[in-house]
Amino acid sequence: MSNLVHPKTFCLISLLFAISVIPAFSAEISSEHQVSLETEISNEALWGQHSFELFAENDNFFRRLFGVSRRTIAQQNSRSQRHNSSRPRRYSPPASNSQNPDAYNGSSRSSPSSDGNSVRNTPKPPLQTSRRDQYQSLGVWELGITIGTSHAISDIGGNKGIPIGEFAEYHSSNFSLSGGFYGRYIMNDWFAMNLGMGFANLKAEREFAPEGSEVFRFNNDIFEFYAKTEFRLPALSRSPFDLYGFVGIGVFFSDASIYDQNDRLISTQNDYSQVQPVIPFGGGFSVKITDSFRLGYELGWRNTIFHYLDGVKKDETYDHYFLNSIKIGFIF
What we know:
The chain is an alpha+beta fold and 332 residues long. The chain is built from six helices and ten strands.
């Protein structure tokens, strides 16, 4: 027991040790705290008021955790669509007359659309009409009239099978008048359809005596209805001219009257149907004067299977007739 420290002595030594060590330890803590505080103050002065945002902005996890935005104050106050997160990210182009078909020629009938969805894949009208469409007006109707002469190839006329020179000389002085109406639809550079009706007066004067009767002249009023297909020349599609040939089918109404030398009416030889089929074919050309007016010429042959165009029958050769016509068309 003599070697052990007395309990009172141990308590006294412990108290003295605490009195001497604790002030020094607290002083060290105070100095460390002061250094840490000074470092934080210097960091705040160097990096800003919220230094932890720097770390959060460089890491997606901490940015989501603390809800920190990477945008600066200037970006937050900016009205630009790039910096404003409350606006949609999709870019909407401004309104333009090029996206509004109704705004062509400077007049707009509807409010312009900025998204362009309503006019997407909508063809825009051309700034200038092409020469082909300007002259030929493809895909439109043409209504017109025909005025010209009519010529008969008949037995009384005596002009069947004669040479071309005599044929031309005969018909230059033996003709009558014709006219009609037509509707024409130009489909493309190659084809056009033509529907119409016409009137032609056929007559001839020549002495001819079938079966002992002296027949001097005849007169016949023809009414015809036809449908024709026109075959156009595409090489002229970009010019104001139009050259074409045609063929079709139709019917005509015939009412022939024959007279003797004393101008007395003679009855026809046989009874026949006054309604007969006819095959019109020929050709023509036209020129477009303005956008809505066309002027042309047409030569049309009428092939029949009829003997009594002049009221008499001499042989087995059919009678025919042809028309020279000036065409006046109006395009719409």
